[in-house]
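Example A, followed by Example B.
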Amino acid sequence: MVSSEVTGMKSWIQAARPLAHVNIVIPILLGQVAAWHVTGRLSWLWLAASLTWGALDHLFVVFSNDFADREADTGARTALSGGSGVIPEGKLTPFQVERAAQFAALSLLLLSCALAFAGRAWTPFYGLAALLLMWLYSFHPVRLSYRGGGELLQGIGVGIGLPSLGYYFQTGAPFAPGWVIWPAMLLGVCSNVLTALPDVGDDARAGKRTWPVRHGVASARRFASAGIAFAAFAVFWWTPSVSMTARAVMSIAPLIPLLAGARAADPLRAAVWSSAALNLLIALWMLAMLLGL
């Protein structure tokens, strides 16, 4: 017989969505790797600090998202769906999830202030920006994830904010270089569009005007494919101090799963293949910078 403590722990692990943490940790690591690529130096302490900051930001995002979507969440899930489902499944109450989001937000701000005293004075700005973006994305009166425009906020957050945070912790420069943030921002927008593809029916019924709902599945697929291809070209063209061979590999290899996604008839399969292309591009990009290829 499973104890209530074990059941409760499993519910909180489900609510924390550990696998979704990749959406936070990869952009932070991208900024850290770019800093290594530029300076040739890496502080393990600041790497650990950035990953801790990212873990708290992740918890704030997933708990806030569950609470904000509690009325529209049907409980249906795909491999790419947002939300943990703990509230519609009755595993946790909205009050519990709301309190968890508030605790994560407070912890994020306290850590940001501590890191400011440790030598990174801009960190509270990043903490407040993270809270503001989530509020604009999910909560009244703005709620851009429902009104339309949530993909742009995600692009700003994971494409500009998180890579810049990682870069800042290593170098002290407040923002990552343009050759990092502009391709990353485009990929962040595309990621939002792709994760919304399988949920287009539920989102439309809930009044959630995601990109696929506003423009249609076919148009959303074309936009995401083109965006990833343009980002690959930008990585090829702009990344400094990387050999032409490495640039070609990291820009062309992701086109293979991208073409598979373009040919897939099912929106979920298309989104999975295109997401694989996006993540492969980022992985090869970081590998080339990390190894100095």
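Example B, a separate protein, is given below in the same form.
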Amino acid sequence: MEDKKIVQLLFARAENAISELSTKFGKQLHRIAYNILENQSDAEECTNDTYLALWNAIPPVSPDPLAPYVYRTGINMALKRRGYIETQRKKR
């Protein structure tokens, strides 16, 4: 599906917007998260958190092109998660 159609689905709050995001960007988002977090379950959780962040950010943002916005959001979510994990390790 084209990026503009996915953005339109997100603006319309259509439930299939997330599945379209997953189909188009899911494997790469998961790979990015796994490379940063080095843990399968954390990468899966981070990927899902990225979908939620995109759902909440679009609208009002209308990114064009969509791919860099999606991947940057995924990277930010993974880095935030890694920081949280490292903080928890230091507290032990």
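On Example B: The CA atoms of residues 10 and 17 lie 6 Å apart.
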